[in-house]
Write a structure and sequence with these properties.
single chain; 346 residues; alpha+beta; 3 domains; four-stranded antiparallel β-sheet; 8 helices
Length: 346
Amino acid sequence: MTALDVFADADTKQAANEVFKIGYDNGGFVSGDIEAVLNSHDLSGYVGFVYGSGFETQPALLESIASQLPLIGNKPIVVRNLKRALQFFTLLDALKIQHPEVSFKPLQNSEGWLQKNAGGSGGMHVVSATSGVDLPKSCYFQREIDGVPVSALFLADGLQAKIVGFNQQWVNPAHGMPFRYGGVVSQADLPAAVKSQLVEYAQKLTSAVGLRGLNSLDGVMVGDQLWVLEINPRLSSTFDLYQSAQANLFDLHVNACLGKPIVWPDFPKRAKAREIFYAPTDLDFYEQINWPEWVADIPVQHSQIAAENPVCTVLAEAESAVVARELAATRSHELKNIINKYRKEG
């Protein structure tokens, strides 16, 4: 397996046969880096190209890749249409799927409104809206809903959608980034009505656009009501929450995309939390830290990471989502102490 990754972290290097670091700038991949890797390889021995987050704003890049390798995932046109805000929310209206009010015109009164970048990820693109300003290209205004962010990971075969699990997310605010992504936990204890809405909406969207493989549906829960925010029509990072020796979700994704028979496994029953650890200050890992076993996406030696950028992922597992999330928070605090000690010794 050949991996193309923005971080090219130690975990990826261990998992793949070869890893190439790809540039990321202005909210998108440096397409020339990807093209250089593809052009330098004999692609005849590869089954296809599996993609994850980051391509939502670059469907043209996906189309270019598809001309050289089969895409294992949704077609570029599906990604393009679902990440065009006007088309997506028009589709939700047609399917009678509840979502927060949106606007594509300057707001007379921006109080209670957010500005978002269609196709943006990680929450860093979400800011409070400003009255009387024109929208930048690909952006839209959305009414803020005060609730709990939740999601459903589901597998689709072009016709049917089947839920893998229900999750709850949280934010890690920073200066200028009030909605920066903080983490996620599986086996979320959601009301039955909210789970039912997630199941219904995942099926409606799959039937409408022919979704394939693993996808995630994101929304905000207010009591027993779900307000849909977006759908991520690609391999989601939440698939790792349900990965186990008995349940290989990567294989499920590939088989569903290729139209192969699906053998539904038993997924882990314990809750798993994944929390992003952001650099408290500029970091230079001139020597490798003795990382705890509950850390993933570990930066390689000599990595330089600017303050407030992702360093790694903190892992936790417990009998319930509440306990798993609390354990992840405790471990993040412990990791901060470990890195502070490393900085002082350095």
